[in-house]
Structure prediction request, 540 residues.
Amino acid sequence: MRWGYIAIIILVMFFLYPIYVLFLVSFVPPQYTVDRLYPDQIPVALTLHNIIHAIENAELTGALDKSLIVATIVGILALVLGIPAAYGLSKLEEKVATLITTLLFVVNMMPAIVIAIPIAADFIKIGLFDSALGLALAQELVVLPISTFILLGSFQSIPRDLENQARVDGAGIFRALFDTILPVAREGIIATFLLAWMTSWDEFTYAILISPIKPTLPVHIYLYTTRGSIIDASAFSLLLTLPVLALTLGLQKYLRGEYLGGGIKA
Amino acid sequence: MKGNYVNYFFVLPAILYVIVLVFLPTVEVVYLSFTNPHGKFTLSNYEALPYFGLTHSIIDTAIVVTGALVLQLIIGLGVASLLTRAFYGKKALYVLSIIPLGIATVVAAVDFHYIFSPVGGFANSILKGIGVTPINWYSNQYLEMLTVIIADSWRNSPIFTLLMIAGYSSIPRDLYNAAAIDGAGIVRRFFNVTLPNIKRYIVIALIIRGVSEFNIFALPLIMIGYNPPLLTTLTYEFYSTTVTLYYSYAAATVLLAFIIGFIIIVLKIGGGRR
Prediction:
């Protein structure tokens, strides 16, 4: 086990160090970090000035609003498209269901940059370019497969009898879905929404191609680094990171290899 | 069986959505890459690409994809195999190993930019601290690609780790015990027991991550810009600088071809289905 412990120490340092650096750049005055040829590895002084300076920036509110709106639409769309799809899949023959989930996962394989260019051109024509809805429609492509898969998993874990009972009692298919199935699958539904939300919150490729003029937060950070305001960029980075970090830790249960593998049964 | 049609009806919106926003645009890109602005068939878009660094970007993409996959596979297997044992702080290692997943790619890019920066870089500060000559990480293209590979592996190794954990947990413990009784050492056990059992998880991880590696975009764009070029940054450069949009269609089609080729190769080596 001695080699095991050495491996553990190396891995822990590898995982933690970049987060520590982000903390240093955000909370230590720049003269000790990025303005120095060899920055200090320990926080010699702490300041909130970097963060305050970034928050006072007027462009931030616009980007923050845009990110919040787009992420929320993506979360809602994941449910609007995902719930019916997962419900239908849970009742279809397994062969057909596998075929359709595989199709959905193939979507994830298509390069965002390949799809985004014609989508951007088409969105210009129909007035969706640079809009929150347009961007959300594109980003939905990233989350739809995993959303459907998580929802499918939680629907499948519900006993068939529960729905049959409701149907026997005279509920239509929609009543049965809304009154019996969805409440029981609540946990999976919330997880799906949050995962979709945070994927959109982080997404960059579609964002820069489809909404470059009124950018989201990630694109804004990129624009800052190209302009050289790296302290602001790091403060924004922290702002972008905190909600997602919290969600990642909260959603651990759903970040499972089985879900990531999804429809592909290699 | 009448109910069956209703079930298809439920799945329909998702399928329509995917057709409209994925398949049609993809077909559009491939089609337009073979036309000129007047809608006539031409190969000139492809013929122009080599003058803008196509060959270079293909080689660079291959280097980054291979490097990142190897590094992530090592990290993923390492963490997953450590987690099969019992030790103090096991849960903490698991949580730490998936934390990078909670850091946006853009943030990871900015972060590693601080680490590898020639001035004010934290990596060089460490090297100097332990008495090694600091390196200018941006002095040549291979070092630049190495920084991208490290940053990408940090951000995305959790996906490998999670899949490897799923793989390890699918191996019956008895197999190990039997192998240990038969006198098989750690290395023998890994190649004869572990590897065959988790092979399909490795194939899945290689496909999922491999495809994403070909699409790697935010990290190189922020960390190294357009040079050395990758297929994605080259495509984006055509798109954003509008030499002509048709070059970007052609570059995108090349990228697509490589991804499809990659999937086929991995499936063939991995033994295909089952």
Observations:
- The domain at 58-261 of chain A is CATH 1.10.3720.10 (MetI-like fold).
- Chain A has a mean pLDDT of 86.
